[in-house]
User: Fold Pantothenate kinase from Caballeronia sordidicola.
Amino acid sequence: MIEDRFLVRLEQLLADGQRRILGLVGAPGAGKSTLAQAILEALPGRAVVVPMDGFHLANVELERLGRASRKGAEDTFDSAGYVALLGRLRAQRHDEMIYAPTFRREIEEPIAGAIPVTPDVPLVITEGNYLLLQQGQWKAVRPLLDEAWYVDVDPELRLQRLIARHVKFGRDEDAAREWVQRTDEVNAALVDATRGRADLVFRWTS
Assistant:
C-alpha cells in the first residue's frame, strides 16, 4: 500500500503531461520491484516498469570475464546499454515503440525485447541497485531521472527476503546465506552509500 503523500507526489510529477522517468533505488531485497508494481496498480495504463536488471550480462559472458561468482555487482551489468535506453526513453518519438529487456530469475538470464514501451505512457519506472552510483557509466543515470526514490526496509527483513529468494530459485539455505553475505551484502553497502543523492526515502514499514 502506498501512502497518499507519495501518490500526490506522483500526480505532481505527471501534471504537465510530459514523459517522466522515476528511479527506484535500494539495496538487494529492499522491495523495489514491489513498490514498482504498487505504483503500476495505482496508475493503471499510465506507467511501465523498465528494470535495470534487464541489463545483467549473460552468464556465459560473466564466466568469460571471471565475474560469475559476483553476479549482481556493479561491473556485471551493461551499464552503458542501460544509460542509452534511458536516453531513448526520455526522447521517445510519438510514432516510436521502444522495447526494453527484462531479467528472468527462473533462468538467471536477461531477455531482450521483452517490455514494450509505448510513446503515450507518461511514466517510466526504472528500478535497480546502482541508479545513484557516481562511477563509470552509472554516473550518467541520475541526470536522466526526473526523480529518484530510495527504497528502504528493516535490515533483518531484507536479509530474510534475500535468503528466501535464493532458496526459491534453486539454492539450498546454506548456499543462499553464503551468497547473501559474500555478494549481496557487499553490494548493499555500496548502494546504501548513495542514498543521499535520492529525492526522498520510501521506507516499508512491514
Notes: Strands lie at 20-25, 47-49, 98-104, 109-117, 123-128, 147-152, 200-203. Residues 23 and 148 are 4 Å apart (CA to CA). The helical segments are 4-13, 32-42, 59-65, 79-90, 155-168, 173-192. The longest strand covers residues 109-117.
